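The instructor's notes for this session suggest beginning with a concrete chain rather than abstract definitions. Hand out the sequence below and ask the class to guess, before any prediction is shown, which regions might be ordered.
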Amino acid sequence: MLAAAPVPLLLGAPLRDSLAQVSSVPSDSSIGVLAHAYWHQLGYTLEQDLRYPADTAGPLAPVLYLGLAMLAALLIAVALRRPRNDAFWAVQHGTLAGSALLLLLANNPQGFRLELVLVPAVAAGVALVAQRLAPTDHHPGLAGPRAGEL
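After discussion, reveal the predicted structure:
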C-alpha cells in the first residue's frame, strides 16, 4: 500500500476522478450522482466479496466462511488492543486505518486480492491471541532457560 502512495501524493489524484472511475460514471458528474453511484458500487462490492467463497469453493465454502470469520475476529482484536505507548500496536492501528481507506477508495470486487493489505494486522492478531493463550510463568525461547534447568 505504501509503495503505491507516492504517485498520487506527488502528482495529485482528485477524489472526484477516483470515485468516478471506480463507480463507472463520467468524472464531470455532480457530487450527488457520484455519491449515489459510489454507495451502489460499495454494496455491489460487499455482495460480490461475500459470495466469492460460495462461487469459487463449492462444498468447501463453509470452511472459507469460517476462515473469514476468524480473520475478522483477529482484526477486531487488533483494533480493540490499545497501543499503551507501544509503537508496534500504534503501527497496527495505522495499518487498519490505511487499509480501510484503500479498500473504500478502490471499492471493486477482486476476489480478496486488495484485502491482502490486512495481512500484517492479521499476523499481529495471531500474535496477540497466542500471547494471551501462552502460560504466564515461562516463555521458552524468549527468556532462555531458568536457573537450574541446564
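Then share the key points. Residues 16-133 form one domain. The chain has one domain: 16-133.
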